[in-house]
Each structure stands twice: as structure tokens, then as C-alpha cells.
Amino acid sequence: MTITILILLVLFLLVGWTVWIAKGHKSDIRVLPADYQLQSQTISLHTTDNVEIQGWFLQAKHSTKTIILVHGFGMNKGEVLKRTYFLAQSYNLLYVDCRGAGASSGHTGAGLQESKDIQAAVEYMRKQHPDLSQEIALYGISMGSAAAAYYTATYGHIKCLILEASYYSFKNVAKRWMWKHAKVPYFPLVASMISWKEHQLGKKVESFALQQTASKITCPVLMIQGGNDKLAPAAKAQKTYRLLAGPKELWVVPEAGHLSCYKVAGTAYVDKITHFLQKNL
Asked: For site-directed labelling of 196, which of 14, 16, 90, 233 has its Cα 20 to 30 A away?
């Protein structure tokens, strides 16, 4: 009897831990535009499901082209800024804190609901800066890449797309992430968490993974993937790459893990993104 109670208690704690992680957790914003001598405007957006989204808008002096930048799970806009601040000299930049992250309200939508955050950002640009909204690119990293791909596949008016550390299957990446960060086994805990999330969202999680959205994307795409990414392996990125319907390029950075391509590649990272945008935006 005591052993049974103990087992049930452990399962209860593991399920609670799994659900807590699934809801997401906020990280502090430690990187600011001022750290790079960049001027920015703090903006507040409201999504179609009434979530308040916070962002930074950085306006370039001589450009009508805009990039909307979207972070991954457990990240915030500051962590994307430190990778991409070099773009501020040539493009207007809109960094967003997705729901449940940074200064924004709400809870994570695992990539699907974050597409609504992108929609709010696009609508903000169209209403507040119509002259800067004729050519819009999206940059998404990890979960943000899934949201950016889903948005592009759904609406189709994005000029070009950068997907970094993207994942082919949501279930596979959730399985690897939960084991790496919490040593939680896929069955039954992670599988149950995914079922709970699907019930909450009203959709199957794989419906907004790249295995389902990539074939609907026709704009130019640059994929950046770490050759040593254990969470989203480069081999899976190859599968996504083959599905993309438009002009495309896959750049694998040897030795880079998940989210570390900019550190490992250095100036090559800057050059690769700069060249892609000069050609396609």
C-alpha cells in the first residue's frame, strides 16, 4: 500500500512538473537595443485572441523593408536581438516577445498560437507604418521558426523567410527537450502533455510543424541548422528542405548545437543572412 502511494505521488509530481514546463517559463530580458547604440520604440500589440504582446520597433533611416523577428521557447526578444542587431543599419526591425515570454502576457501556444502574435505584428506594421510594410520578411528561431512557417504557409504574403534551428516534428522535439531538461520520459508523461495541449489548442500539434507547413511555402527560404543540434538534428532539416516549394537554401553550421549557430559561425553567420536578404528582400 505504501509503495503504491509513493508511486502515485511520484507520478503526480512528474505530471505537475511536465505541465509546468509545457506552459512555458519567462526568462529575463537582459539584452537591450541601447546595448548596441540602437534607438527603439517599445510597442504594445493585441492579438485576435486578446493577448497583449510587447515588442521593440527599430526604424532604419533609408529603408522601406521590414523584418519581423520571432524567438524560441524559453527565450525573449533580447536573445534574438543579440544575434541579429547588425540588420538594423539596413532594415526596419520589429522584435516581439511571444505570448508567455519576456514582457508579454499569456501562456505559450507551442508555436501554433504564436502565429497570432506574428499576425498582430504584421497588422501593426500595416496600420502604423504602411509605407514600410510592402516588403516584409520573417526570421524565426526554433519554436519561432515553426510559428513563422505556419504564418507564411497560411497567409502567403511574406517576401522571404529565415528559419533557424527549426524542427520537422513537434512530437520529436518535445520528446528530446523534455528528456534533456527534466529527464521526463515520453510515455506516458510527455505523450499525455501533448494530448492535453492538443485538447487546449483544438488542433493536432503536428498540424503546425514543418512536416505539414513546408510544402505550402513558396517564398525564398534560408534554413540555418546546427550540425551538432541534438534537439532538432540536421538530418530532419534535410527532410524539411526537400518539402519547401520555392527557392531555398540550407546552411548547416558544423559543430553548432541548438541556438548556437551565431556563436560558432561568427562573421559567416552575418554574411550568410546579409547576402540572403540582399538577394530576396
From this structure: 233
Spatial strand order of the sheet with 160-164 comes to 41-46, 52-58, 92-96, 65-70, 135-141, 160-164, 221-226, 248-253
- Sign, CA dihedral 74-193-227-269, equals negative
Helix (H) or strand (E) holding 249: strand 248-253
Q: Which residues of 76-102 are buried (b: 16+ CB within 10 A; e: fewer)?
A: bbbbbbebbbebbebbbbbbbbbbbbb
pTM: 0.91
DSSP 145-174: HHHHHHHHHHH---SEEEEES--S-HHHHH
- Class of CATH domain 29-167+204-280: alpha beta
Output the CA–CA distances (angstroms, integers) from residue 69 to 8, 22, 94, 189, in the order listed: 43, 23, 6, 32
Verify cis geometry, omega within 30 degrees of 0, for the bond prior to 188. yes
pLDDT per residue rounded down to tens, the chain (281 residues)? 566 654 444 445 445 544 445 555 678 999 999 999 999 999 999 999 999 999 999 999 999 999 999 999 989 999 999 999 999 999 999 999 999 999 999 988 878 899 999 999 999 999 999 999 999 999 999 999 999 999 999 998 999 999 999 999 988 988 887 778 777 777 777 787 788 778 877 888 898 899 999 999 999 999 999 999 999 999 999 999 999 999 999 999 999 999 999 999 999 999 999 999 999 99
Domain spans in the chain, listed from the N-terminal domain onward: 29-167+204-280
